[in-house]
């Protein structure tokens, strides 16, 4: 059940057999959510943290006028609200962007981990630090990159993150979001997203059909996106 979490953590440092066993013992309950359901609601005080097993979810904030700003996407292997263990009250929500299957780790058990397993604690801490790094990249993309570069950067990021958890097929990956939902993720109108996607297609960089994205020229796509995966901390080294 937690194989993708182990691949995620193992992309940063070696996860010991004891740490694997502990994670398997504390991540037990599972449930499913459908598109539009909140995995975690803004303003709630969850007693557990939520691990993505299947699907894609999005971190979001609701403004006073009811509009929504998406600030990150989450893929299998991600703990979407690990920080809720310490923050207590959620200042944002997590919504299912596709059918999602999740598992839970009770905060009582996470507290025991932090008190008895310092290396595993550091790995889980790093997971939240990478979340913060992703937010910084998204902020830069929204504020400073061209629309074409912004879309290219997001596709590069998703490809790399899904590759870590072995959810790619060669140069392709499933993206179970409609173009309307992707427009919402990028903060664009649907018309603007379609025009931008057509530009990437004409440039021979990507093919996006039936919710499958195929990267046709990785080198040129990363160059356009100015994509540097350093912020994902994908080097296996002592932490």
Look at the structure and give the mean pLDDT.
95
Q: Note the gap between the termini.
A: 25 Å
* Biggest β-sheet strands, sense, barrel: 4 strands, antiparallel
Structural class: alpha+beta
For CATH, the homologous superfamily of the largest domain is named as: Jelly Rolls
Query: How many structurally independent domains?
Result: 2
> What name is given to the CATH topology of the largest domain?
Jelly Rolls
What percent of residues are in strands?
15-25%
Main sheet: strand order: 2-6-4-5
Unreliable spans are none
Radius of gyration from the CA trace?
A: 18 Å
What top-tier CATH class of the largest domain fits best?
Mainly Beta
Order of helices and strands: HHEEEEEHEEHHHEEHHEEH
Q: What is the count of helical runs?
A: 9
**CATH architecture term of the largest domain:** Sandwich
In words, what does this structure look like?
This protein folds into 2 domains: 3-138, Jelly Rolls, CATH 2.60.120; 147-232, Arc Repressor Mutant, subunit A (Orthogonal Bundle). Helix content is 44%, strand content 23%. It contains 9 helices and 11 strands. It has a 4-stranded antiparallel sheet with strand order 2-6-4-5. Strands 8-9-11-10 form a 4-stranded antiparallel sheet. Helix 6 packs across helix 8 (190-202), helix 6 crosses helix 9 and helix 7 (179-186) crosses helix 8. The two termini are 25 Å apart.
Short description:
With 239 residues, this protein is an alpha+beta fold. It has helices spanning 3-10, 17-26, 84-87, 107-116, 118-144, 147-164, 179-186, 190-202, 218-225, and strands at 27-33, 38-40, 48-54, 57-62, 68-74, 93-96, 100-106, 168-169, 172-174, 206-209, 212-215. The chain has two domains: 3-138, Jelly Rolls (Sandwich), CATH 2.60.120; 147-232, Arc Repressor Mutant, subunit A.
